Amino acid sequence: AQSVTQLGSHVSVSEGALVLLRCNYSSSVPPYLFWYVQYPNQGLQLLLKYTSAATLVKGINGFEAEFKKSETSFHLTKPSAHMSDAAEYFCAVASNTGKLIFGQGTTLQVKP
Amino acid sequence: DTAVSQTPKYLVTQMGNDKSIKCEQNLGHDTMYWYKQDSKKFLKIMFSYNNKELIINETVPNRFSPKSPDKAHLNLHINSLELGDSAVYFCASSQGGGHQSLHFGNGTRLTVT
Questions:
Q1: How, if at all, do strands B10-13 and B108-112 pair?
Q2: Which of A49, A85, A94, A103 could form a cystine bridge with A32, CB 3.0-4.6 A?
Q3: pLDDT tens digit string along B50-101?
Q4: Which residue from A38, A98, A104 is facing B97, i.e. has the nearest CB?
Q5: In B, which residues are within 8 Å of A44 by CB distance?
Q6: What pLDDT shows up at residue A98?
Q7: Nearest to A86 by CA among A52, A39, A45, A21
Q8: What 3-state DSSP class applies to A15?
Q9: Is the CB of A43 less than 8 angstroms away from the CB of B97?
């Protein structure tokens, strides 16, 4: 069965600093992995998606994630945090039964 | 021209009542979903429909009944509401199921008192 674990329920960075949000997955088949962002009182919005085409995936708003099979990881990074990046971030894996399984989420706080 | 729209945005009701949440998507997608987000922000799938046919039905109390009159609409009816039903319910759609990206509505915050 597929699952994801997000390490750190809350991450705080200063504006301009590197953002690193950690996600580890478990999958018995080659995974399809996603990062979604949720701004307050809104639905989730796709940031990026890994589909085995390239291990480094670039997304919207300057985010990118690297798929590392040896580490079963799909960490999300952004070189320089902006105040508008403050939100809830979810890592997800597509199951082989057609479901999207979400991690527990990481709240990103950006301090001025 | 909202892609996935849900109504109402907020729903406050008393235990034992019956309520419905409506969802419509104008993306031309063939698959629609209901997700529940609890107070700890954990998201879990409840149902999925493909071309009006139920394809995913998680372990959800049968007080919850989804209905898809056409592939652009997926409504959620809840009977005999309980305190534990309080959550944010998200509708989503995709073209095809499985590995496709989801487009989410803005959610319906249900509060049962």
A1: parallel
A2: A94
A3: 888 888 888 789 999 999 999 999 999 999 999 999 999 999 999 987 678 8
A4: A98
A5: 43, 90, 92, 102, 104
A6: 73
A7: A39
A8: coil
A9: no
